[in-house]
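Example (one chain per record):
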Amino acid sequence: MRGEVRRIETEHRLARMRNHELAQLIGFAFHDPKKMPKFEDSTEGRKAISNEVANAKVRGFLIALSQKKTAGRG
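Predicted structure:
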């Protein structure tokens, strides 16, 4: 129950941040579009990982999760 409440609060906080940023951009666009800041890509500088590496990470996570669940039953 607490996890669900925390997830909803996190989504609400993220929505508020997006709305605040959108309001700033609308203000720039309406009053002086020439001063509008350029878009900064948040993924810039990150290296793309291959599907094989991504699959290996997920597989490792699932194996660890499975072992964690079965360890309590033995």
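Caption: The mean pLDDT is 86.
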